[in-house]
């Protein structure tokens, strides 16, 4: 894998396409176990990310990821904004000053993102959140030697579906207690689209 500014930009653009396309679906999930704004938050935020990165020429992957992170933090809002913002900020630090990133560095950047979100949200896996998609994906990347798009997308999808039977203990969904069971977590679903976008635009 050679993850460059071009690939980073394509990834962000593809994430935005999914957020616009699946805005209603994400909002419906958040209506069941939250306040019904997750689709709106993500669609608004990533639209701004695309606007931002389309305006500028970037020399390093760290720089484009940093702009994405700052825009996510200021425009997504809710619980997801600071969490995804942290993820992209950690990636921007891991990819700082680099023009091309290999598989190992890419994997390390995603692990840093995961650890950053765990700290930021004071959460762990099994609590029906975005972490329940990020952790299996990072473990899958760590087990591999090269980027496997289809298997990565399958891993993310399976992980997202598994949140359906979990009971939420973090975020707004935690107020629903046992009633949160039976619904896929909206953040897990948006994370799935982030990784689906990755699988769609990045090659082995
Ligand atoms: P809000 O709940 O503030 O309206 P969103 O609807 O945009 O924010 O995002 C909700 C999602 O954020 C949840 O579905 C869950 O995946 C994620 N989330 C909430 N709290 C946490 C946390 N402490 N750690 C990790 N993810 C969390
Ligand atoms: Mg919400
Ligand atoms: Mg909200």
UniProtKB/TrEMBL annotation:
This is phosphoenolpyruvate--glycerone phosphotransferase. ADP-binding subunit of the dihydroxyacetone kinase, which is responsible for the phosphoenolpyruvate (PEP)-dependent phosphorylation of dihydroxyacetone. DhaL-ADP is converted to DhaL-ATP via a phosphoryl group transfer from DhaM and transmits it to dihydroxyacetone binds to DhaK. PANTHER family: TRIOKINASE/FMN CYCLASE, TRIOKINASE_FMN CYCLASE. Keywords: Glycerol metabolism, Kinase, Transferase. PROSITE patterns: DHAL. It comes from the Bacteria. It is an enzyme of class 2 (transferase). One of its GO terms (cellular component) is cytosol. Pathway: Polyol metabolism; glycerol degradation. It holds the Pfam family Dak2. One of its GO terms (biological process) is glycerol catabolic process. Its EC number is 2.7.1.121. Residues 6-200 form the DhaL domain. It catalyses: dihydroxyacetone + phosphoenolpyruvate = dihydroxyacetone phosphate + pyruvate. Homodimer. The dihydroxyacetone kinase complex is composed of a homodimer of DhaM, a homodimer of DhaK and the subunit DhaL. GO terms for molecular function: glycerone kinase activity; phosphoenolpyruvate-glycerone phosphotransferase activity.
């Amino acid at each position: 894998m050679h993850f460059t500014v071009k690939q980073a930009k394509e990834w962000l653009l593809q994430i935005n396409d999914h957020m616009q396309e699946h805005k209603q679906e994400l909002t419906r999930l958040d209506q069941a176990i939250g306040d019904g704004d997750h689709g709106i938050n993500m669609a608004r935020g990533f639209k701004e990310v695309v606007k931002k990165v389309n305006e500028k020429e970037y020399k390093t992957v760290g720089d484009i990821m940093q702009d994405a992170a700052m825009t996510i933090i200021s425009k997504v809002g809710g619980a997801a904004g600071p969490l995804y913002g942290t993820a992209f900020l950690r990636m921007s630090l891991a990819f700082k000053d680099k023009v091309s990133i290999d598989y190992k560095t890419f994997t390390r950047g995603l692990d840093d993102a995961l650890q950053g979100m765990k700290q930021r949200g004071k959460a762990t896996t099994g609590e029906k959140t975005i972490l329940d998609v990020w952790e299996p994906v990072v473990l899958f990347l760590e087990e591999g030697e090269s980027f496997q798009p289809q298997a990565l997308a399958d891993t993310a999808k399976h992980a997202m579906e598994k949140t359906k039977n979990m009971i939420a203990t973090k975020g707004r969904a935690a107020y629903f207690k046992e009633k949160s069971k039976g619904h896929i977590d909206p953040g897990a679903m948006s994370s799935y689209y982030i990784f689906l976008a990755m699988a769609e635009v990045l090659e082995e």
